[in-house]
C-alpha cells in the first residue's frame, strides 16, 4: 500500500482591489495539492484504516508543506491556514478524512509555520474538475474573523475514481478592509447585554 503521487498542483491568487478600493497590502492565497492513488482503492471494506494512514499521511504532509512554503516564500509569510481532501467516486469520504485528520499530517504544517490553531477543513467526494475548497483561519487565533477565508481551485483531471486530492491552503494576510469585528467583541457585547438584562 505504498504512496503513489501522480501530480502536485499549486494555485496562487493575489487580490489587489476589494470593494473598489486598493488593498493596503495584497492578499495572497495559495493551494498546494497532491493527486494520489487512493491507498484503499480496489480493496474490500477496511475495518482499520490506520496502516494506510501511517504509511501515507507523513510523506504527504512533508511534501505539501514544502510546496506551500515554496509558494509563500517563507513560513513567516503565512498568517492563515487550512486543509482539504476530495476522494474520487470509487472511494469513501472516510478515505479522504483519514489522510488529513491525523496529527501525522497536520503537525507538519502547524510546526512548520508556528501555528497553534486547529486546521479548518473540508472533506468530500467529487470527480475530475470539481471545486476544491480550502477554508482558512488565523494560525494563532481562531477568533480573528479577518482571517476567515476560503481559497478554491480545480484540477481538470482529478480526482479520478480511484484517487484522492489532498490539499493545504494558506493566506498571507486577512481580508482587505475587514471590518466585521471578531468573536471577542461579540462575546463582550453578549455579556454586556446579559448583565443589562439581569439588572432590569
List keywords for this structure.
single chain, 200 residues, alpha+beta, 60s Ribosomal Protein L30, Chain: A, seven-stranded mixed sheet
- The number of helical runs is 4
In percent, how helical is the residue content?
25-40%
Please state the overall shape, judged from the principal axes of the Cα atoms.
globular
User: Average pLDDT value?
Assistant: 96
CATH superfamily: BB2672
- The number of distinct structural domains comes to 1
Amino- and carboxy-terminal Cα gap: 66 Å
Structural class, by secondary structure, is alpha+beta
**Which architecture would the CATH scheme give at its second level?**
2-Layer Sandwich
Low-confidence stretches: none
Strand content: 25-35%
CATH class descriptor name = Alpha Beta
Our Rg estimate from Cα atoms comes to 19 Å
Q: Give the total of beta strands.
A: 7
Quote the CATH topology. Answer: 60s Ribosomal Protein L30, Chain: A
Largest sheet: 7 strands, mixed
Order of helices and strands: EEHEHHEEEEH
Amino acid at each position: 500500500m505504498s504512496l503513489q503521487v501522480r501530480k502536485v498542483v499549486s494555485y496562487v491568487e493575489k487580490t489587489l482591489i476589494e470593494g473598489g478600493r486598493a488593498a493596503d497590502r495584497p492578499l495572497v492565497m495559495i493551494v498546494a495539492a497532491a493527486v494520489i492513488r487512493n491507498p484503499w482503492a480496489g480493496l474490500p471494506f477496511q475495518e482499520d484504516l490506520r496502516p494506510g494512514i501511517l504509511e501515507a499521511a507523513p510523506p504527504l504532509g512533508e511534501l505539501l508543506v514544502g510546496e506551500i512554503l515554496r509558494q509563500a516564500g517563507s513560513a513567516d509569510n503565512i498568517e492563515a491556514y487550512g486543509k482539504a481532501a476530495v476522494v474520487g467516486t470509487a472511494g469513501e469520504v472516510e478515505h479522504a478524512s483519514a489522510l488529513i485528520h491525523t496529527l501525522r499530517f497536520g503537525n507538519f504544517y502547524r510546526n512548520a509555520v508556528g501555528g497553534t490553531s486547529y486546521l479548518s477543513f473540508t472533506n468530500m467526494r467529487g470527480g475530475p474538475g470539481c471545486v476544491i475548497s480550502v477554508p482558512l483561519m488565523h494560525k494563532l487565533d481562531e477568533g480573528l474573523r479577518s482571517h476567515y477565508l476560503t481559497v478554491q481551485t480545480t484540477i481538470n483531471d482529478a480526482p479520478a475514481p480511484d484517487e484522492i486530492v489532498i490539499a493545504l491552503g494558506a493566506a498571507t494576510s486577512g481580508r482587505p478592509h475587514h471590518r466585521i469585528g471578531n468573536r471577542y467583541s461579540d462575546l463582550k457585547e453578549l455579556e454586556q447585554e446579559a448583565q443589562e438584562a439581569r439588572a432590569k
